[in-house]
Design goal:
The protein is α/β, with parallel strands linked by helices. The chain is about 35% helix and about 15% strand. The protein has 14 helices and 12 strands. Bound molecules: pyridoxal-5'-phosphate (PLP).
């Protein structure tokens, strides 16, 4: 069969009928342990921390959607990032996008660097600085693109070329776009990371994360972390993500349409100071977005001035919910400085540009006219 297209993979990869019963949905194997066939022999599984048939299906699906060699499902996006950096050793140098998701910075700042790992945040737009920052002990460059919430892009291909010339691996947090809109491995990345909590699950009813490796050595590495550290996704959550993946291409089309419409509306509104959405022609990285992404997605942020104005706006929204997270079918609005980036100090937030009036929107799949009407009435109340 020729290579299948993304929408076909979303429905079928890892989701073949159950060989035992013919069930068209992947069964949820709620079993911690498996009967062995002898000493040192089994039917493919022995203990669910090391491997579970439902998780295997999801991991196969994730690898197929990202064009990787192996998928690895974890109990949250943060557990996936913990597993990503678990193999680093004291003395290693880790470079990370400077306005990365606040939870990632919290993990790196409060734990990882105390393990003797040298941590450096960089604005990934400055490729010369990135190249100059790579040292003999640099092991990993962790890139988030687009960033949360400022929607700053990193040129994945260019970063990978610089990193690979020096033998350094690149991991990309692809949460904001999902594999429907961006495939970092095709652009040269070694490892892709997802918070499956977001678009992959898509229904705001679970927490999960994933790593997708591009080479056999990544499979060995992350299987070992799963088994040794144990932050694995539960079979039921795997089922929910598999179910979400089947409609991912359709949902992303609807998310994207709403993202574009809302960005255009906000960009002309007098009370909005700045809209950060790579789909707008005046976004400084609009051209890069067009080349490395297959769409602009449904995440954006805008600046409404003072925190008081942000508070009034959030109190006035009716259809959008004032809630953290993103990527679900329902539209959400959140105040970045006090939610996703509360873990940063005032100085750290100022340094990356997360001002007190920044509101992040995650457009769901409702009708765009209703979303715009809600934003219009909420802005009138500011
Ligand atoms: C870009 C990004 N990466 C990682 C995470 C962490 O994922 P989780 O909340 O599933 O642990 C988040 C959560 O918001 C995120 O937005």
């Amino acid at each position: 069969m020729p290579d299948q297209k993304f929408a076909t993979l979303a429905v079928h990869a890892g989701q073949e009928p159950d060989p035992l019963t013919g069930a068209v949905n992947v069964p949820v194997y709620l079993s911690s342990t498996f009967e062995l066939t002898g000493i040192g022999t089994d039917k493919g599984w022995d203990y669910s921390r090391a491997g579970n048939p439902t998780r295997d299906r999801l991991e196969t699906a994730l690898a197929a959607l990202e064009g990787g060699f192996s998928g690895h499902a974890f109990t949250s996006g943060m557990a996936a990032i913990s597993a990503l950096v678990a193999p680093l050793r004291a003395g290693d140098h880790l470079i990370c996008t400077h306005n990365v998701y606040g939870g990632t910075a919290r993990l790196f700042n409060l734990y990882i660097q105390h393990y003797g790992i040298e941590l450096q945040y960089l604005d990934m737009r400055d490729l010369a600085k990135l190249e100059a920052s790579i040292k003999p002990n640099t092991r990993l460059i962790h890139v988030e693109t687009p960033t949360n919430p400022l929607m700053v892009l990193a040129d994945i291909k260019a970063i990978c070329e610089i990193a690979h010339a020096r033998g350094v691996e690149v991991s990309v947090d692809n949460t904001f776009l999902s594999p429907a809109l961006q495939n970092p491995i095709a652009l040269g990345a070694d490892i892709v990371m997802h918070s499956t909590t977001k678009f992959l699950n898509g229904h705001s009813d679970g927490i999960g994360g994933a790593l997708i490796g591009s080479r056999p050595e990544h499979k060995d590495r992350f299987l070992l972390v799963q088994k040794a550290a144990g932050g694995i996704m539960s079979p039921f959550e795997c089922y929910l993500v598999l179910r979400g993946i089947r409609t991912l291409p359709l949902r992303m089309k609807a998310h994207e349409e709403n993202g574009r419409a809302v960005a255009e509306f906000l960009s002309t509104h007098p009370k909005v100071k700045r809209v950060n959405y790579p789909g707008l022609p005046d976004h400084p990285q609009h051209e890069l977005a067009k080349t490395q992404q297959r769409g602009f997605g449904s995440m954006l942020s805008f600046d409404i001035g003072k925190q008081e104005a942000a508070g009034k706006f959030l109190a006035a929204i009716k259809l959008f919910l004032n809630a953290e997270s993103l990527g679900g079918v329902e539209s959400l609005a959140s105040h970045s400085a006090t939610t996703t980036h509360a873990a940063l100090s005032d100085a750290e937030r100022a340094e990356v540009g997360i001002t007190e009036g920044i509101i992040r929107l995650s457009m769901g799949i409702e009708d765009k006219d209703d979303l715009i009407a809600d934003l219009e009435q909420a802005l009138a109340a500011v």
